[in-house]
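I am still learning, so can you show me any protein sequence you like together with the matching C-alpha cells, please?
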Amino acid sequence: MDLSQKGAGGMIAVFLAQWRHDRRSPALILIFMAISIAAMLLFSSNMSGQLEYAAFPDRGVSHDEAKQRVARMNDSGHLTFKLTNEEKALRDVREGQTPLAVRLMQDEEFRIVATKEGIHQSMVSEHMHRIASEDGRLAHAASLVGSGNTVRTNFESFMTSPPVHKVVLRPDGRAMAGNEMSIQLLLGFTLFLAMFTIGYKINAVMNEKALGIWNRVILSPVTKTGMYMGHLCYSLIIGLIHMITVLFVFVFAFGYDLGNQYGLMLFIMVLYSAAIVSLSMLLAGIVRTPEQFQMLLPVILPIMPLLAGIYFPPGLMTNKLLLIAGEFLPITHAVNALKQLALYDAGWSDIFMPVAKLALIGVICMGIGINLVERRKA
C-alpha cells in the first residue's frame, strides 16, 4: 500500500469515527440548528410588526403645521410616525415604550430625543434629512415662482401619475427585491451559528492531541495528514449540513424566497465552511489547551456578525475601522455573495470578488493555523 492509499484510508477511518460519535450523541449539532431557527423566528416576528415613532411639535410650531409634517414623514418612506403631545412622547421614551421621539421645530428643523444610541436613531435621522432635502428643493422652487403652496400641490399631483414609470424585474420576470432585512438576517444567523458547530468540531483535534491519542494513532497505518483531513473534512460537512438544513426549513416551511441559484449558493456555503474550518484551526493554534479554545470561541464569534454589519441595513455602518475589520471575516463575504444570489439572481461574475476574498482568507488561516498547531508542544 503506497502513502496516498494509506493517507486516504486513514482519512476515511477518522471521518467515520467522528460520524459514529455524533450519531450516538447529536445533541450539540441539533442545539445549534434549533438556535438558528429560533433566533431567526424571534427577530422576524419583531420585524413583522410596524414600529411607530412619536413626533411632537416644539414651541412656535402649530398643531396643523405639525400634522402636515407628520403626514409627509409617513408618506416619504417605510417608517411610521404618530403625532402626540410632548409630555406623553417624552414619558414613552423614558419608560422604554418607544426607542425615540422626534421634536418638530421651526424652519423644518428637528431633534431626536432618545435615552441611548442605536439603529433607530440612524434610520430616523436619515429619513428626516431626506424629507428636509426635498422640502428645501421645493422651497427654492417656490421662491422662484412666488407661490409655495402651488409648487407643492403641482409637485404632489405630478408624482401621482409621472410620465415615466420605471419597473425593475429579475431575469425570470419577478419583481426585483430591495435589501430585505429578513433575508439578510436569515443568512447571517445561519452562517453565524454554523461557526459554532464547526468550531466545536475542530476542538476535537485539540482534545485528541492533548490526550495523546494522535501519538498512538500515528504509530498505526493512519498518517498525520489523514488525521488532519479526516477531522477537517468532517467539520466542513457538518457545517454544510447545518446551513442547508436551516435554510431548507425556512424555504419550505416558512415560505422564504432565496431565488433559484441553488448551485452557486451551495458552492458559496462549501467555501464558507472551508474558511471557517481554517479560521477555527488558526484560533486552535493561538491557544494552548482545548479548554482555552472553548472559552475563546464564545467570545470571538459573536463579535464577527457585528463587524460584518449583519444586523444593520447596508450603508448604516460608516466607521472605517469597523468596515476594514469586517473585510477580514469570512461571514462578511459569504453573506454578501449569498444575498446577491437570493435577492438579485446574480451570476458568477457578480460574486467573483466575495468568492475570491473568501478563498484567500481560508488559505491564509489554514496555512498559519496548522503551522501553529504543529509547533505547539502537546
Observations:
- Strands lie at 52-57, 80-83, 101-104, 110-113.
- The chain has two domains: 3-45+177-375, 52-160.
